[in-house]
Design goal:
By secondary structure, this protein is an alpha+beta fold. The chain has ten helices and 17 strands. A hairpin with a 5-residue loop joins strand 10 and strand 11.
């Protein structure tokens, strides 16, 4: 059954997180078979889309002008010793005109649906014949590409699920402006932020709880554990103070963290928007500050992350967020580009402390700065300010750049 893929779908695939993977397999095919041309082509009903290639331009051609539209209907390697002598292909433009290819070998590639969607192929400018072992190697390369594409698709899905779990609405409490953003190093990562409203366990009214967590590592495993830690902490936070909530979260998630050789840093704050009273616990995170034109102060405690062999007491500390101050919490992906030094923080604050900037604009500046300075880890930023007499509003932006 022929595949069905349109231009927009093919372009989306071509520009997905798999682009580097496509290029890698094309380079492998070109090197293994010493072929001047190698390509990965996606085949639609009307067009062939070359999404990765060496020696042949990327882009779209009519499907009838390709060899791969025949290969994609097969279940095995198609080899053509001399295209000029094969009536099916002798008149296609790549044979009659530049680059005047003569030899072709391609292996069909299946998508997640089990249907062939493309072809990994090699071409030469002179007739040649693959040996049995070479044909097997090409088939194996196609099977390996299918496997990697399947893993990539799962990663893409995990990343989308992780983004959906981030806050998408303003907290239901007055007097707060807040924004957050995650820029994972891969499709999914171990960073997350969160905010939600809780009842103060001492009966003092509603409080806004904000969280920034960072599970060690990147990729699917880190994102799954981050989702677990987030959900467990949310549950415990509704019934107790933040120190006890972190301790209970550590107990609940200990097995999964230890089994995967992971730990998670956490910074958790609980704010009274009316007074600015802020309780917080820093479980191995160390990257939260209160900043204003007067300078900044760190909200830091010398506690271990959760998931370590020894558990800390995680007792809450307190501060006050004034109306002209910002609460800024970031992940170590931001701190890494500052050479792990707080000496550079104050020099950078002038760029984000303009009172005319919204929290969303500040978050975007922090993330853009980190990405532009080649951050290699997940980058997350959360910014909060009190807005006296205003309704709460937030603009979480969790998209990737």
């Amino acid at each position: 059954m022929p595949p069905s893929m349109g231009r927009q779908e093919a372009e989306a695939v071509a520009h997905s997180g798999s682009a580097e993977l496509y290029d890698c397999f094309v380079r492998l095919a070109q090197a293994i078979f010493a072929a001047p041309i190698a390509a990965l082509n996606l085949i639609g009903n009307d067009s062939q889309f070359t999404v990765a290639s060496i020696g042949f331009p990327k882009g779209e051609i009519p499907v009838e002008d390709s060899v791969c539209h025949v290969t994609v209907l097969k279940d095995q390697v198609l080899e053509v010793h001399d295209l000029r002598e094969d009536a099916r292909f002798a008149e296609i433009p790549a044979v009659t005109g530049p680059p005047r290819v003569r030899f072709y070998a391609g292996v069909p590639v299946r998508g997640q649906s089990g249907q062939n969607i493309g072809v990994l192929c090699i071409l030469d400018l002179a007739p040649r014949t693959l040996g049995r072992q070479e044909r097997e190697m090409l088939a194996d390369l196609g099977a390996l590409l299918e496997h990697e594409l399947s893993v990539q698709e799962e990663m893409d899905l995990a990343g989308k699920v992780q983004q959906l779990m981030l806050p998408t609405a303003a907290p239901d409490i007055a007097g707060i402006e807040i924004a957050g953003r995650v820029q994972p190093a891969r499709e999914a990562g171990g960073d997350y932020y969160d905010w939600f409203v809780v009842d103060d366990p001492d009966g003092a009214g509603k409080r806004l709880e904000v969280v920034l967590g960072d599970v060690m590592g990147k990729g699917l495993a880190a994102s799954l554990i981050a989702s677990e830690v987030r959900a467990v902490l949310r549950g415990h936070s509704r019934y107790t103070d933040i120190g006890d909530a972190i301790a209970r979260t550590a107990t609940t998630t200990r097995h999964d963290l230890e089994a995967n050789d992971r730990f998670s840093t956490l910074w958790v704050g609980r704010l009274d928007p009316a007074t600015g009273a802020l309780d917080y616990v820093d479980a191995g995170h160390g990257l939260a500050i209160i900043a204003s034109q007067r300078g900044y102060r760190r909200l830091y405690q010398d506690y271990l992350p959760i998931g370590m062999p020894i558990e800390d007491p995680w007792t809450r500390a307190s501060d006050v967020l004034a109306e002209d101050e910002l609460l800024i919490v970031v992940s170590d992906g931001v701190f890494d580009v500052l050479d792990d030094s707080f000496d550079q923080v104050e020099a950078r604050l002038h760029a984000i402390l303009d009172p005319g900037l919204s929290c969303t604009q500040i978050v975007d500046r922090i993330v853009s700065f980190s990405v532009s300075h080649a951050a290699t880890d997940d980058v997350t930023a959360l910014v909060l300010r009190r807005v006296t007499g205003a309704a709460a509003h937030a603009t979480p932006t969790s998209s990737t750049t």
